[in-house]
Amino acid sequence: MNIEFVLLAIILITAPVLWNVSRFWQGKVMMICTLLVFAWLAPWSLLIMVLTACAQWLIWKYMPPALKTTGVLLTICLPLLVLLSYKLGHKTINWIIPLGLSYYTFRQIHAAFECYKGIIKVPTLEEYLQYLLFLPVILVGPIHRMPEFQRSLRRLKWQPSVFSDGMERILYGLIKISFLGNYLFSVKFPQLAEHTDSVFIKLYIQTIAFTGNAYVQFAGFSDLAIGMGLIWGIRVIENFNRPFLATNMQDFWTRWHISLSSWCRDYIFQPIIALSRNRWIALIISMLVLSLWHEISLRYIIWGMVQAALVLLTVQSRKTFPSLSRFVNQHPIGKWMGRIWVFHLFAFSCIFIGYENIHAAGALFKQLFG
Amino acid sequence: MFQQLFVQPPAKTFLQTEDKTYSYKWLQQRILQIAGLFDSLSLKQGQRLVLAISDDVEMSTLFLAALANGITVVVADPEWKAARANAIIGRSEPACIIADKSSLDTWKLQLNSNCIIIPFSKTNANRPALLSRFLQKNKAEAKEDSFSTLLEKSVPVASLPASIDPETIAYIIFTSGTTADSKGVAISHNNLNAHLSTLQKVYGLTQESSILNQLLLCHADGCIQGPLLSVYAGCTWHRPFRFTIEKIPALLDYCYANNVSHLFMVPAMLNMLIQFSENYEDSFSYPAFNALISVSAHLEGPLWDKFESIFKVPVSNVYGLTETVAGSLFSGPLQETSCKYTVGKPVDCEIRIINEQGEDVGNGTPGELLLKGPHIMKSYWQDENLTNNYIKDGWFYTGDLAAIDAEGFVKICGRKKNLIISGGINIQPEEVTECLLRHPSVSEACAIGLPDHVFGEKLIAAIVLKPGSNDSSLDLVNFCREYLEEKKVPTKIFIVPELPKGVSGKVQLNVLKEQLLQLHPKTHEINGEYLDQVLNIASEVFQVPVSNLSVNDNSNTVAGWDSMAHLVFITTLEENFSISFSTAEVITMNSIQKALKLIEQKHVPATA
């Protein structure tokens, strides 16, 4: 059974408790629930996660103001080291089950940046752990933000409409995962491809099915997480905003995996732009980080660079061909042409990550366009 | 007004503080217990009880208990200085005083021997924590607390008096003024009940309503439109914490989480809410929210517009005085009285607007506003002449200048009387002038109000020093702190060679105002020149018409403000103002307001 469904069951069981305790206990109940679940599923992961969080908090609390820069570097590097050590050497330290570690680390880095910028006050250890150990999003994201989470916790109240919204989102998520993903794109599309003799059409259908499946699975699990959050009364950031209605690649990256792309914008793109004043360098490095977050491998590096190039071309073409840009962004026919173009660009770029190695992806491109 | 109190379900919440809930059952028992204390002290209907307690829970329950027993409450501010407290409390001839121990220590009251003085210690007002009770740590301190001790000893009465003479004075609130001319506004039970009924009707209060009112309980808008109105309507009163700038986000979240339906604010608070509105614009977007009510001071049109456009909630404006219990004219929440930039229409009362000759003026012509209704105060306490000066043939002369339009909506145009309203607090400038003249180095003094975009008016004073004196304005501010409450201490005192005077020798206030406006720096005001430039640059970079942009916009509200355009915006600002932003500044500059603040800090105009 998928672990997300186990979490869903736990969240539904905990909901009556949560809504019957006083405001003082509500945040604590959520945190204790996560601690119990992790202690059962992945105690070593829990230990490492909590220890890094405590270390970060101690640095915020006790680092002298004169060493603020050292403090921020430490609070960023510490969780990053844990993530990298897993991503690069996971085969040797197989006793750690890194449940949701990539999301968790990026949340920790977000908190470190925000404390440094002074946007948020240093939280208490309990507040910080409540944020990091929010069960609905801990495994599959989104990378929700601490100020929004704390605010949502302060505004927490029982609202039947929010609860039913949550159940609705879970239903949508299940339909996306089971019907669209596991049945339509995984079973029906390959069957459809078998009915044709054309290699191009066969591979084209495969490519579309891969991208479609990736989207519905990911969006479906995001729906589950958002829905579970709503059952507990907490609204978390949306992760997808109808990405295939984007008319250009820059627009696409504000709609696809929003919590990660906005994280990269705020903590990679903006600091680099502030330092270098060069948006292209900032864009390339941001896309590199975005791709490596998924997996540290050559195929993902290439995929990230392709995305950077596509965004760069979009921005540049707006200057070089302003009338074409206006047509695509404003005219109804232009918009649909833009959407079809964006969908295909993204689908074909995903060939790089759809195969185990870069040679297999290269062979497919050759068969498709050779 | 106590009909609702004893028919409420016992578990229904009367008062919600930040961490504690007080039920109606608790209030009922508390009132019966306090009534027992009044019995033991032999307090009779119509006798005066002075209350000066900074603990909101105790102040409100004592106030309610006194009203329920027909004892006249004299509302005192625990922050009063000794001279004012002695003068006012002496004039009210109280039978009993319950006041903060710290206030009593400061006041050293000189009263007749029949008056019972009961000190109140805030630290012991609530029961000590379980562990402390177990360890009996607070035992020694509790003995010193006379109020708690007396209350514990008193036997609760079985029931409250069946009826109270409606002409009995319910409470007396002393207005700001010099020690000699501070006016005691005496409100009868009749006045109070009539007006509470009006307020309940106008605000549409039901037993399901939730009022949040954080205004000071020693002022009419705090105590009347808070605990009294809540009990009258049988609804819940929220008093989570004192209003401070740091607490604004928490306050907005509190309203949302607790389904507050009626929020009472003074215009200065509304102004502060706007400044911290970013990401909180949806704070009132829940079905239970009913009305945001601006009280105590003039609500400026631009502030009204700005607040409504940001929070997407209509603001109601109330006009009233301590002499009219709380309100008289209302613009909203009732649809038929609602008209922006006005104080609306009178409800349950009549109005007249007259000229200097006492004749009614036509529509659109300003004149003095007169009010008549069951809520107009009974009298000024023990001052028949003063009462007769202000109430003639049942008409109360407000001293405010107003004009009425063809549809009957009233607009306040100015003030005939000399009064400063700063952040919703009424300050009689003569009181401040009197204090300054007490200083041995001051030969002449005059306190006035200057316009301020946050507080409405700001209290400023000008003084002339005696020859040979070299006291600084800071010395004089510190001197004022000794004799005046903090809110009445001038924000700035100017030492001038002379005060402008007319032929009669009186200080020409308008001339002095003009002079001080030249001297007084404009604080907290956004530099209009920078704003225009920044908005033009933003318009060009983000491809948005400049008319659609305002100082409140940020990267979430402007469509074209993406990460790419952000860099262009930053570099254009740098080029235009010949400044450079640091890395941290570039990262955090996500709104027009932040950009403006940084530019104001960094940019040195070429002419400087």
Describe the structure.
- The complex is a heterodimer of chains A (370) and B (608).
- Chain A is mainly α and 370 residues long.
- Helices cover 78% and strands 0% of the residues of chain A.
- Chain A folds into three domains: 3-154, no CATH class; 160-231; 243-369, no CATH class.
- In chain A, helix 2 packs across helix 6 and helix 13 runs antiparallel to helix 14 (298-320).
- Chain A starts with a helix and ends with a helix.
- In chain B, the strands form five sheets. In chain B, strands 2-1-10-9-11-12-13-14-15 form a nine-stranded mixed sheet, with helices on both faces.
- Mean pLDDT of chain B is 87; it is low at 135-144.
- The A-B interface holds A 23-24, 116-119, 147, 151, 154-157, 250, 254, 265-266, 269-271, 273-275, 277, 279, 282, 315 and B 19, 249-250, 253-254, 256-259, 279, 562-564, 566-567, 571, 581-588.
- Tell me the major beta sheet of chain A: none
Q: How many distinct domains of chain A?
A: 3
The amount of helix of chain B comes to 25-40%
Mean pLDDT of chain B: 87
Enumerate how many helices of chain B there are, as a single number.
20
CATH T-level topology of the largest domain in chain B: Rossmann fold
Radius of gyration of chain B: 26 Å
What's the pLDDT, averaged over the residues of chain A? 89
Structural class of chain A: mainly alpha
In short:
The complex is a heterodimer of chains A (370) and B (608). Chain A is mainly α and 370 residues long. Chain A has 18 helices and no strands.
Q: Which key phrases capture this entry?
A:
heterodimer, A: 370 residues, mainly alpha, globular, B: Rossmann fold, Rossmann fold, 5 domains, 7-stranded mixed β-sheet, 20% strand
